[in-house]
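In response to the reviewer comment on reproducibility (Comment 2.3), we provide here a single inverse folding case reported in full, input and output, so that an independent group could reproduce the run without further information from us. The C-alpha cells appear first.
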C-alpha cells in the first residue's frame, strides 16, 4: 500500500515536471500559454495531500529525483511571483483597493502568519519591523499593520517590484506606516536601532550571505524570523525545509502552522558569545 502511494506520487510529480520543465521564467511571468497553469494547480493539490513525513523523506533522498524537485521548486516560486505581480496590479487599479486585498485567496493565510510573527517576536503596536525580500505584494507587512498597528519597511531588490509595491502601499493609503525601499541586505536602515524584528523572506537569497551580514551588523539580542515548510510533500518544494540556525544566531522558538497556514515560523536571536579572559 505504501509503495503504491509512493509510486503514485512520484508518477504525478514526473508528469507535472514533463509539462513545465521547459518553461522559462519569462514565459511564466508574462503568462504565455494556456495549458501550463493547470500543471501548477495539480502541483498545489498534490503537495496539499496528507502524507507521512517518512514518505516525503524517501522522495527527497532519491538523488535523481531531487534534481527534478529542484526544478519544480524553482518554477513554482516563479509562478507564485507571477500571481503576486498580477494581483498587485489589480489592487492598484481597483476602485476599492482594500476590498481587493481582502479578496486575495491567500489573505487569510497572511493574517494568520501575522499573528504568528506578532506573538513569536513579542511585538507591540507601534513597533517597526523590516522585511527583506518583500516582493511586489508585501502582504506580510500589510497584515501586521492592518491587524496590529505594526509599522514596517520592505526591502526589495528588483526595481520593478519595489516600484509596484510602492504604488500598492500608496493605493492602500499606508505610506505613513509602511515604506518600501529598493535594495538588498546591505540596504537595511538599522542606524537608529528602532527595529523590533527583521523578517527574511523566502525569496531573499543567498541565505548564508544574508545571515553572515546580519551577524556582522546586528547587536546582541536582535531578532530575526523566517518561514519554512516542515511537513509532508510541501517540504519537497521548499528550499529552506532543512533549516539550521546560521552562525551567530540561536533559535529560540518555532511556531507550528495551523489551518489555513502551512508554514512554520522560526525565530532566531543574535547571540554574541562572550570570550573568557584567563
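Designed residues, in position order:
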Amino acid at each position: 500500500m505504501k509503495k503504491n502511494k509512493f509510486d503514485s506520487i512520484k508518477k504525478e510529480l514526473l508528469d507535472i515536471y514533463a509539462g513545465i520543465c521547459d518553461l522559462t521564467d519569462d514565459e511564466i511571468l508574462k503568462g504565455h500559454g494556456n495549458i501550463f497553469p493547470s500543471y501548477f494547480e495539480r502541483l498545489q493539490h498534490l503537495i496539499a495531500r496528507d502524507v507521512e513525513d517518512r514518505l516525503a523523506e524517501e522522495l527527497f533522498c532519491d538523488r535523481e529525483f531531487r534534481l527534478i524537485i529542484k526544478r519544480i521548486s524553482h518554477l513554482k516560486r516563479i509562478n507564485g511571483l507571477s500571481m503576486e505581480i498580477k494581483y498587485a496590479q489589480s489592487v492598484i487599479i481597483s476602485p476599492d483597493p482594500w476590498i481587493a486585498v481582502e479578496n486575495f485567496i491567500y489573505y487569510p493565510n497572511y493574517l494568520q502568519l501575522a499573528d504568528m510573527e506578532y506573538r513569536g517576536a513579542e511585538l507591540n503596536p507601534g513597533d517597526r519591523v523590516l522585511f527583506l525580500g518583500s516582493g511586489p505584494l508585501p502582504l506580510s507587512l500589510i497584515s501586521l499593520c492592518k491587524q496590529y498597528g505594526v509599522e514596517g519597511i520592505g526591502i526589495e531588490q528588483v526595481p520593478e517590484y519595489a516600484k509596484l509595491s510602492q504604488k500598492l502601499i500608496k493605493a492602500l493609503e499606508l505610506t505613513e506606516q509602511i515604506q518600501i525601499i529598493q535594495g538588498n541586505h546591505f540596504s537595511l536602515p538599522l542606524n537608529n536601532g528602532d527595529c523590533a524584528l527583521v523578517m527574511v523572506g523566502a525569496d531573499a537569497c543567498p541565505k548564508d550571505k544574508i545571515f553572515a551580514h546580519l551577524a556582522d551588523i546586528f547587536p546582541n539580542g536582535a531578532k530575526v524570523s523566517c518561514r519554512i515548510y516542515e511537513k509532508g510533500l510541501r517540504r519537497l518544494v521548499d528550499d529552506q525545509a532543512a533549516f539550521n540556525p546560521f552562525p551567530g544566531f540561536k533559535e529560540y522558538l518555532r511556531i507550528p502552522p495551523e489551518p489555513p497556514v502551512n508554514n512554520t515560523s522560526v525565530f532566531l536571536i543574535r547571540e554574541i558569545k562572550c570570550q573568557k579572559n584567563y
